[in-house]
Amino acid sequence: MREILSVATYLLVWFACQRVLCIQSGLTKLIISLSAAILVYVIVVLMDRVQNNKEE
User: Fold this and answer.
1) For 28-39, how does the pLDDT look when each residue is reduced to its tens digit (9 = 90+)?
2) How far apart are CA 30 and CA 26, in angstroms?
3) What is the DSSP string of 1-56?
4) pTM for this entry
């Protein structure tokens, strides 16, 4: 589930950079999109870890 959410985030941010923010540089879009996807992945992992600690 985490991976699917990260991929969806990557694609949505890439699209937003291209269409909404009108960023032309491919490297800039790549860095922004990957950063957002990694951030979402880390947040989901941390939330899962906190939830598992509460259950124990």
Assistant:
1) 999 999 999 999
2) 6
3) -HHHHHHHHHHHHHHIIIIIS----HHHHHHHHHHHHHHHHHHHHHHHHHHHHHH-
4) 0.82
